[in-house]
Amino acid sequence: MTETTFTGKKAALEELRARMRDQLSKLMPEFEIDQKAELAYEINQLKSTQNAVILGHNYMEPALYTTVPDYTGDSLELARRSTQTDADIILFCGVKFMAETAKILNPEKTVLIPSLKAGCSLAEAITAEEVRELKVQFPGVPVVTYVNTYADVKAESDYCCTSGNADKVVRHLMAEGHERIIFLPDEYLGRNTADEVGLPFVLPSPSGKPHETEPDVSGPALIGWQGRCEVHDKFSVEDVRAIRRQFPDVAVVAHPECSPEVVAETDYTGSTKQMIAYVKDVDAPHYLLLTECTMGDNIAAENPEKEMLRLCSVRCPHMNEITLEDTLEGLRKVQYQIELPQDVIKRARLPIDRMLEIV
To answer: Do residues 152 and 223 share a domain?
Structure first.
């Protein structure tokens, strides 16, 4: 390394450190910021030499979220962004189903995930075989699958949706004359979406597992599944009421993967992107986010003038697997590539494309 190069690196690294201290000093000790800055600098250097683009979900930890992604956002935004890059490598700082979606939309590109441990409780809640059984149980009924599912499940679906457009996808199908729609796998998102569009919500029994009293699904209905996000399932009505007793002027914002009872206690419900926009646009003395806690840290870093309350540290254990260290190692070794069978890519692409055409 020449002296000029060394001097340039030192200046760039110090500039990055200063920016991180400015944004993250209320969230992290200075020595940790300095350590993370070294990693972020190396990652950003590797991106250009590898012709890579990094996509970062809103649930990434602040030191990563604020430094290395070329694009940040929710599942829908990042799916769109993945189709708009000419990079050879897409490194997805998010969980496995997100990286799979990027691979489905970019089969010719190398798609990486920093950690093989980054799964999802919702994606694990349903299998492709269970979707096929539902299709036999309800012949001709269209299947809408939440994007928080694995590729083989998407391949059995007619449409995909995200938390930000679930109601639009369901309304689209209703406008086409469908009175019954299968909605998988998040029970709470299904219930909240059913309330939004004015359909009854029913939970049928899986094949071979009858209820004591089988629900009536002969009429108009959103036919759901008993999957739940392990993070959003932890928030309760009493949690919200306790916060309001202490901070009566708080604006409570919830993700629609929270239960309908919790959502009914809040001021606004939306996807992570919509929640971020709400906090930026609404002037309130305090804000409480009922979602993965790291997103609150990221909003606080970007909006230091906003007073964010913390109900508790509910961290997604799967998102927590994505670190700067693993991101750097993934780029260095081009490791943990997403590989999917071509027939699954082809069949899973259709419901995703249909979703993107609606919104």
So the answer is: yes
CB atoms within 10 A of CB 270: 17
Q: In this structure, are 220 and 160 located in the same domain?
A: yes
Distance CA 42, CA 12 (A): 11
Instruction: Residue 257: give the domain boundaries.
Output: 232-315
Phi, psi (5° rounding) for residue 204?
-75, 165
Pairwise CA distance, residues 201 & 222, whole Å: 5
- pLDDT at site 143: 98
Locate 22 and state its tokens: 């400015």
Contact 274, 164 (CB under 8 A): yes
Neighbours of 254 (CB within 10 A): 25
Number of folded domains that form the chain:
3
DSSP structure string for 24-79: HTTTS-HHHHHHHHHHHHHHHHHHHHHTEEEEEETTS-HHHHTTS-SEEE-HHHHH
Predicted structure pTM score: 0.89
C-alpha span between 235 and 266 (Å, rounded)? 12
Q: How confident is the model at residue 306 (pLDDT cuts 50, 70, 90)?
A: confident
Say if CB 70 and CB 34 are below 8 A apart. Answer: no
Asked whether 104 and 147 are in contact (CB, 8 A), the reply is no
Q: How many CB atoms lie within 10 A of CB 110?
A: 17
Do 94 and 111 lie in one domain? The reply is yes
Average pLDDT over residues 69-92: 92
Helix, strand, coil shares of the chain as percentages rounded to 5? 45, 15, 40
Per-residue pLDDT of 242-263, as tens digits, reads 999 999 999 999 999 999 999 9
| Six-digit token string for 252 | 């409570």
Q: Give the whole-angstrom CA distance, residue 356 versus residue 359.
A: 6
Distance CA(132)–CA(156), nearest Å, equals: 7
Contacts of 213 (CB under 8 A, 6+ apart): none
